[in-house]
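yo, DUF4890 domain-containing protein is done. seq:
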Amino acid sequence: MKKILVAIMLFSFALGFSQEDDKYTEILEKQIETLQLTGEKKEAFIEISDKYYEKIKATQESEGSRMSKFKELKAIQDSKNEEMKALLSEDEFEAFKELQKENRSALKDRFKQKNKS
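structure:
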């Protein structure tokens, strides 16, 4: 039953957002599946991820230099990692860090594609 509720929540969450938000939802679902999170741990993971996603979006849309945004995004990521480290087991956290590396690589590729256009 909880899986259905979370799936409905994620689906309805994705419906109201742009393509970027759809990509976030896709990444979040992949992380949850890869880490095999269930129950309260899964709900806490989603809550932490959503909180920091909103902070990241706000920083990206804010005024300021690229360097100041980069520093702010780095601080946000460090805070998120601290919360995730407290939530996840050691093995889960290491897998989470690997997923982050993959996501950064994909983001760089999308950025390069966007700038070629």
